[in-house]
Amino acid sequence: MLALAAAASQLNSATAFAPSPNSVLHAPLKSETSLSSSAQDQSQPVTGRESYGEESREFRRTVYTHEDWVKHRSPDRFGRNLFTLSNSGIYRSLFKEVAATTTVASLIIIWNMIFGEYQDLSSVTHPGIMHDSLIPIICLPLAPFTLASPSLGLLLVFRTNTSYQRWDEARKNWGMNINHTRDLVRLGNAYYDRTAVSPERVEDDLNRLALCTWAFVRSMKRHLSPEWDDEEAFQIELKEKLPAEQAQMILDAAHRPNRALQDLSTAIENLPMHFIRKNEIHRAATIFEDNLGSSERLLTSPVPLFYTRHTARFLSFWLLLLPFALWEPLGNSWNHLDLIPTTTFLSIFLFGIEELATQLEEPFTILPMQAFCDKIYNWCTEIVSFTPGDNGMPVTVSNMPRVAQLDPPVLTTGPPVTNTLAP
Predict the structure, then answer these.
(1) Other beta carbons less than 10 A from residue 393's beta carbon
(2) Residue 16 — very low, low, confident or very high, per pLDDT cuts 50/70/90?
């Protein structure tokens, strides 16, 4: 049982998909049951929207603030978590499993009271109504469950650790998106050669760069989200923020993030600056493709199904048969009634560990990707509004590449800005 407790502890830190319908990557993954069912219409996507666990995923997209961290560290958290047990989405998703194990425990009590002995309200023991029959009471020794619990614990630990690592990798991919969108737009703004073009051209080019950067991450978010969850909002946002023709070309693309990334590359190429600096910005954009590929791998490649199915079957049989083994150890209670709450709570917490791992395994519908995209839009549009020298800082004017520049740079104190032909 210590191994099972270790599995539960692994989840403490963790508790804090279908792109374009034309894309092969977005074909819905079917479960073992749906694949074996000939009656199911194979043309219909398996959305799982009737499941409470699926409906509750959008409420797990948490973005913490300082106030949230204060509440998270509050000494009242233990009592708060206990009193909100009935509201837990994880446990509400396990009703069928817990009901099955509790029913088994109840049937064992009834069976053994009929064919064995029972106690009246005065705790006096009487033979059951079928006590004299040849049918025995049903129970199992506890030793096999004690021996099997370390193996089950190791399976659950690996399951939860692997699922959390998948969530962590997806979050890091989006963290890199956030970092490099700001980095790309910052470099574009700083390297832009404002001496060669009109102020209107500067504003148009940099605004286009910011919008194309946002359009890629927003397309990536749609690419990793179910169609029913994001398609309508995605179309509305693109048509509101992008030129109509550009937005339509992205919407019509088979792989929308690729189209958006192509638009971003074109926007970078249109910036007047030295080619070495332009190549540096392109390197920042290339990282987006790496993040996209890593996220697609997580979306389309679950933890090997034979492992997750074996773990789920092992846990199910272990918990369904456990009431038989607890019959004698809980014999001091009245008519062995402690068997019911004991089985119920063990089922809740152990099935809960497996449920947590399953919920974490596909991380994109519980990551706050929309919040990330909104922040990227706000930050990128703010960065391009900055003008070198608008805060009174001196701005170096470099009209030649540094390798050929013999005179010291000229310093200015006002809005005039750099000719950035130098790398």
Answers:
(1) 9
(2) very low
